[in-house]
């Protein structure tokens, strides 16, 4: 049976009903708000006949502007509010591609169709005679996941941080510090890099501020030097990322990282809620100087000698010398020199921080603790040097650490053959070893844009000098100073010197006062007792095994064989010695000396009709550490001038009162203790003439100060009395004895 037309229509409506319902549901879910531009476009398109081409979808303000194509006219171009004002192309310019309507097209009223002119995104004029910092949030978009808690709702954003030099001097190697407040995550940027070389995406909540540096150029010239070219004295850093919460999209603070500039509080503008600025002016107490000679200044080949910084003195000096320059790289030599009179440096480790994305391609005379090129491959270096074989690169760390090579690598043609290298990191004082008071190594350093010019040179910063030896001192190093170029002997052997292209000097000084590690005891032929090391000469621990001891009582005299026992095993011998010689003991026995190295100075019998005397010095090492190429400095007064020979030591006289004692070829290694009972030892004898009037028993034959490996040792509390097996006396005790004697004499006279 044939179906009637009415039933056909009804069936068709039933089939279309679900589609209509879904369409209505979709339209309900779409945003109902429209921009002013969209509203005008809708009004314009509603006035056109049904046969005209529909208006294209309007894009967001940050993308391509929307266009509406009437049936008989050129499409009207609508420009976003942040760009050039919109213009409507006349209808006679280009014929419309829309099929003409058979009806007369309705004329579009330009007052209705054209969008209003966009508002500027920043104030027209900001008064700043300095460095103007601005930050503008260009766009924000609500992104998933959606949440009802506005404080955690994520938003994608685009922003522009800008620096404008409105002053009269160039801003060198700038850093822009921004403090964010909405847990922003930076995803990408153009026109700059993160100063600390962090990887993107970067969570800004991990630090109190984010430091940006210009890239590829971190110098901001003046308007005067650029003829007012905005592209040259204004740097824009465009950012994209994610923030959380919709309260105030602007950062909390913006300043320059250079202490020469003081930045005001950020200014807000009511008509521009997404814009802020601050003006940085010179610090009146620390004025910046145009192209001043600073630690990071660009090397100037025409610099006047009067502009070099004066060299400083310190315990250690480090020279960073550029020997040769090439386009994009240079050869540098680093020299570490020990300027201290007696202190040595063992196992040196030198590190610094590159500021311009440099990397070490090759190194000789030392080696880096980390080798590899992964940081270059995934960093800006890999992007620029795309044709380089990075498998040959030595180190790409921002903070490399260099260590000395062992002696057996000196003749290695690949890594050695550098004067003063390859000594296991030991640097002696010059007065101790005039051939080993320096360490040196060379590097081939590659640079990055914009520093590819061969005379655009920067020194690294933040030098740190440490030691692998726990007994060495701690050092604090200054920032590099640009000094007059160093001179080096000509490598060809000619009697001439080659001058470095540029030189920087770093000064490192000892900052700690470590607990002393050695002490001295006295003994002599005229007394059977030994004046031991002081109580707690090297510090006393807070807690120690055994009975309590006194940290203030003077050390007990002991027999000479007790020197071969460690401080914590001498108590029994000291008590027996006190009982034998009827010494008075304190209620609480004194603590030990707790020193790893003991030195005993013993006056031997006078010889040659009392015209000379000998002194025997014994070094006893109770420490677990063995000492290679050890030395002892002994200050003598007045006996120093009468020294004439030694047996068991190589002796060098220094200055007016110091003897430097070192072991012979076969005794330069002082072993550590084994099994806590067998110390390392070395012994030798020094021969002196005796001056007229010299009182050996009064202490004239004893040293005034003793240093072991540059460390000052603790001296005993007094000198031995000249009565055999008697106690000791000090300068104070002599006065007391005189006073007591005087009272005793007066008492006797009264009784008589």
From TrEMBL:
Main localization of the protein described in the UniProt heading: membrane
Signal peptide: 1-25
Composition-biased stretches (Low complexity): 44-112
Subcellular location: Cell membrane
GO cellular component terms listed in the entry, alphabetical order: plasma membrane
Domain COBRA C-terminal positions: 517-717
Keyword tRNA processing: no
GO biological process: cellulose microfibril organization
Keyword annotations from UniProtKB, A to Z: Cell membrane, Glycoprotein, Membrane, Signal
Record region (Disordered): 44-127
PANTHER family, sorted: COBRA-LIKE PROTEIN 7 (PTHR31052:SF3)
Family: Belongs to the COBRA family.
UniProt protein name: Protein COBRA
Organism: Rhynchospora pubera
